[in-house]
Amino acid sequence: MSILASILEVMRNDNLLITVTFTTVTGAIVNITGSTCFFTVKVANTDTDVNAKISKTWNVHSDPVNGITTFSLVPADTATLLGKYFYDIQIKTAGGLIYTPIHGIFRVIADTTLRIV
Hints:
The radius of gyration is 15 Å and the shape is globular. The strands form two sheets. A five-stranded mixed β-sheet has the order 1-7-6-3-4, with no helix packed on it. A two-stranded antiparallel ribbon has the order 2-5. The chain starts with a strand and ends in an 8-residue tail after the last strand. By secondary structure, the protein is mainly β. It contains one helix and seven strands; from the N terminus they run E-E-E-E-E-H-E-E. Strand 6 and strand 7 (about 100-110) form a beta hairpin.
């Protein structure tokens, strides 16, 4: 799988739908049928998973044959966060292989509007 290092910037308390397409380094689509995905946000990469600020696990994918999966962040996920963290998206294939194709900085920005309409 290809590896992407990126900055994922989110507004605190917002809903966010994240779509990921898994490909090889040559751009070929990876069939993720039967795979489990993990999204983890931590203060430090060395923190244990138990101490993760956000931890999501899912195995139902939008279009697994075409390597597409989607997951959501809800306001409660970022309500107590502000600043810079580390994140990754990891996948465990149906055959038990583990890949971490996406990792980087997870930045939570303070929301300006604090009222709920």
